[in-house]
């Protein structure tokens, strides 16, 4: 099976008579939009109309009304719309990258769907735009690009903040929900999809919101199961992966589940996973993760234009790939992103949003009570903070930065994604909700289960739209986190899953892998490129590593970020 997310296209926007769509999988010099390669997990849709418009979509596409896979024969109707890109975002959903070329003017639009489950990078050349799923395919004939040290420095301050700029010179990323327009060698970028808040969800009963939420989760999951009918579901036994399992109940004969174990306590969730798998008769494969599969000197992200991998996930990737081979799975399904879109926010921000939405009334008092029970914080502290945040709600959103161990203590604010700037109605909690959703989308590139795509049903566009439209304070009903999801599936999951408040963790695996590689880590940080470029405080890093028995988990995580970047740089140099 070909590697996941594989595609490459070249675009020449010069106005000319339209020569027709590509006949084979390989483009040619006469074709304005040339498809160079495509992997089997991505479908190809192509259509042309009598106005000289050519629409090419690479990915998986579903009809929003019928929730079915769009057939190639139906794809041409999108070009009947005045704005085909808008029609894609409103009437359809999936994971895709689409190109609209208007031959008479040479105008090109490139859009990536809001779920971001298909990476998309581009490079502008003289009279040509190269687009691909990884950086190397943008430089088939050119040399390997150099690192952009200024963007890498920004990455080290907060790796979850991304713009169209990447850590490689001349390589840009098309962010989810955004559109690049290109004409006469002039390139601009703008948002095409912005999260919206529905005012009527302030008053709607919990049961009605939960019922709609259940339908959206089930619709998304079953649609993906039609496209990939033999999924291997990563079933931790947590709420997020469990609701996906419940939504796959009609596909019992084709679903396999994987539960990965390392250590004890939060690292062992076998009893929870077994309860869910047993309820629906799914085969459950339990694997013990191996710390010797973790090699900090190796990066799985070397083909990507950012160091988007974590060394400790190598053990998870290996175990998942081995089980997928045994099961003949055609995709890996993950519950990743659930905490993010289900507004798992432990702060006073939901109370601030409620205050701004409803004023000093019963709903505000109830929300403060809910957050007190959910977080364990003092009621008066939540009250004071929510009022203070409400007073300053007009201030621009600011990302948190971490300058620990950095050589360059840059105080500049990090860029803010247009979803946050334009989609939060100046609600601090909703802005945090959107920012968390963007982080979840970025994390979809961290798993690398070779040969198979990883599908994140909970990040499907219709479900994302609905979750982001719900005020964040409505997710903590009765003092319970993600209460709307629990209400939606309380009759469809074992009681211990609905009542569960603890969360699993691979913290023991991460710490064991870090300590096993401590010598390699020390050498990489002492003699690596980051320190040579002045981005790292070499002395501070070595001082922390000199007492490994006293390293706190949060310090390990911080240092691991630098080592992952060093491994990425080394991998890039070797290509």
From TrEMBL:
It catalyses: L-aspartate + L-glutamine + ATP + H2O = L-asparagine + L-glutamate + AMP + diphosphate + H(+). GO terms for cellular component: cytosol. It is an enzyme of class 6 (ligase). Pfam families: Asn_synthase. SUPFAM superfamilies: Adenine nucleotide alpha hydrolases-like, N-terminal nucleophile aminohydrolases (Ntn hydrolases). One of its GO terms (biological process) is asparagine biosynthetic process. GO terms for molecular function: asparagine synthase (glutamine-hydrolyzing) activity. Its EC number is 6.3.5.4. Residues 234-359, 455-569 form the Asparagine synthetase domain. Pathway: Amino-acid biosynthesis; L-asparagine biosynthesis; L-asparagine from L-aspartate (L-Gln route): step 1/1. It comes from the Bacteria. This is asparagine synthase (glutamine-hydrolyzing). It comes from Sphingobium psychrophilum.
């Amino acid at each position: 099976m070909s590697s996941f997310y594989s595609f490459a296209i070249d675009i020449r926007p010069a106005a000319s008579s339209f020569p027709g769509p590509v006949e084979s999988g390989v483009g040619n010099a006469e074709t304005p939009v040339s498809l160079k390669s495509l992997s089997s997990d991505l479908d190809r849709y192509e259509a042309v109309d009598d106005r000289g418009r050519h629409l090419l979509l690479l990915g998986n596409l579903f009809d929003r009304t019928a929730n079915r896979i769009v057939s190639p024969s139906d794809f041409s109707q999108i070009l009947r719309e005045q704005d085909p890109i808008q029609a894609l975002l409103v009437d359809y959903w999936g994971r895709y990258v689409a190109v609209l070329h208007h031959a008479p003017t040479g105008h090109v639009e490139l859009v990536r769907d809001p779920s971001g489950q298909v990476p998309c990078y581009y490079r502008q050349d003289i009279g040509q735009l190269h687009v691909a799923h990884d950086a190397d395919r943008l430089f088939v004939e050119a040399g390997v690009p150099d690192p952009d040290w200024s963007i890498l420095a920004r990455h080290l301050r907060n790796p979850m903040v991304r713009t169209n700029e990447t850590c490689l010179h001349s390589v840009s990323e098309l962010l989810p929900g955004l559109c690049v327009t290109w004409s006469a060698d002039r390139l601009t970028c703008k948002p095409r999809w912005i999260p919206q808040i529905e005012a009527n969800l302030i008053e709607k009963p919990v049961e009605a919101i939960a019922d709609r939420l259940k339908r959206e989760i089930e619709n998304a999951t079953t649609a993906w199961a039609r496209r990939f009918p033999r999924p291997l579901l990563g079933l931790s036994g947590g709420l997020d992966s469990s609701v996906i399992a419940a939504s796959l109940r009609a596909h019992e004969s084709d679903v396999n589940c994987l539960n990965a174990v390392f250590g004890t306590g939060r690292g062992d969730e076998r009893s929870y996973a077994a309860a869910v798998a047993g309820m629906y008769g799914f085969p459950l494969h339990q694997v013990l993760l191996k710390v010797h599969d973790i090699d900090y000197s190796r990066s799985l992200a070397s083909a990507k234009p950012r160091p988007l991998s974590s060394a400790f996930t190598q053990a998870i990737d290996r175990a998942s790939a081995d089980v997928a081979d045994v099961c003949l799975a055609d995709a890996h399904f993950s519950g990743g992103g659930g905490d993010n879109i289900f507004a798992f926010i432990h702060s006073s921000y939901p109370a601030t949003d409620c205050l701004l939405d409803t004023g000093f009334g019963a709903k505000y008092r109830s929300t403060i009570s809910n957050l007190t029970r959910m977080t364990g914080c003092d009621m008066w502290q939540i009250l004071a903070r929510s009022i203070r945040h409400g007073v300053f709600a007009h201030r621009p959103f600011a990302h948190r930065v971490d300058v620990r161990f950095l050589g360059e203590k840059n105080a500049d604010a990090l860029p803010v994604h247009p979803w946050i700037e334009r989609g939060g109605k100046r609600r601090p909690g909703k802005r945090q909700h959107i920012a968390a959703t963007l982080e979840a989308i970025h994390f979809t590139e961290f798993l690398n289960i070779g040969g198979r795509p990883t599908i994140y049903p909970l990040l499907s566009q219709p479900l994302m739209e609905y979750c982001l439209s719900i005020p964040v304070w409505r997710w903590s009903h009765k003092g319970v986190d993600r209460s709307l999801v629990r209400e939606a599936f309380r009759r469809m999951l074992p009681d211990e899953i609905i009542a569960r408040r603890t969360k699993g963790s691979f913290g023991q695996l991460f710490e064991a892998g870090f300590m096993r590689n401590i010598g390699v880590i020390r050498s990489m940080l002492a003699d690596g490129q980051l320190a040579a470029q002045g981005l790292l405080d070499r002395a501070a890093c070595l001082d922390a590593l000199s007492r490994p028995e006293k390293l706190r988990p949060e310090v390990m995580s911080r240092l691991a970020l630098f080592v992952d970047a060093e491994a990425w740089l080394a991998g890039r140099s070797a290509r």
